[in-house]
């Protein structure tokens, strides 16, 4: 059975497509590509149908990640097919938990940086949209740091299902 992860930010053009690309690469490197499906969306539909922000694409490509993406808005009905919904900041976490049809669905929502022990109490990935390239590079560093712990948690869930 496929384990499904969806990363969610505001417009699905900066942080969540970056997290999707990084985590998809981690899943493939771990040999879990056939078992884990990785996706992303935004809490709002402002950019639906658009590609990722050019700065996101540039930072991803400069660091060896694939960057193909089309923005879309998260739908509450998706909770039924998703195993894990990964929010990029506390505002997204609250919005997604409000959208969740059941308490069980609300429990599927987690903050990305909660998987990075070095993050401490600062669990938000700041929105780089209104800044320069350095904000996108910082975002990538945070996403990469959290992806190691996230991969370990997902691997544990996937292996637990197989047992």
UniProtKB/TrEMBL annotation:
Residue stretches making up the Phosphotyrosine protein phosphatase I domain: 3-153
TM segment ranges: none
Keywords assigned by UniProt, alphabetized: Hydrolase, Protein phosphatase
EC number(s) per entry: 3.1.3.48
InterPro entries: LMW_PTPase, Ptyr_pPase, Ptyr_pPase_sf, Tyr_phospatase_low_mol_wt
Gene3D superfamilies given in the database record: 3.40.50.2300
Pfam families: LMWPc
Superkingdom of this protein's organism: Bacteria
Family membership noted in the UniProt record: Belongs to the low molecular weight phosphotyrosine protein phosphatase family.
Protein name according to UniProt: protein-tyrosine-phosphatase
Native organism: Streptomyces lomondensis
